[in-house]
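Proteins fold reproducibly. Look at a sample protein:
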Amino acid sequence: MKRFRQFEEDVSAEQLDEGSFVRTGAVAGWAAKSKKEGDAAARSFAAGKQVLARKTPNESIEAHLARLEAGLAQALQGMEHMRAQIGAGVAANVSAHLLSGKQAGGRRKR
């Protein structure tokens, strides 16, 4: 087992900087949310396609319209998830830039 002084000699100050952990955690969190929303959008679009594909030969006009409405509702839900996915992706990008900017600004002052 290493003693702290040995560990300190082997690891640079940049590797021990807690700001990098915060930045990594923030970016990873937003990236995970973006992935989750993207998966939800894909599920909604697939469900909408399934609804639209369920056509029967003797379908009434009312049933056809109801099926189209359900497919449209799924597509709109998928678009809402895509909007959330884009927002989370932008948040990941912004947080990475802001947190790295603060870290870089702190280095310049020294």
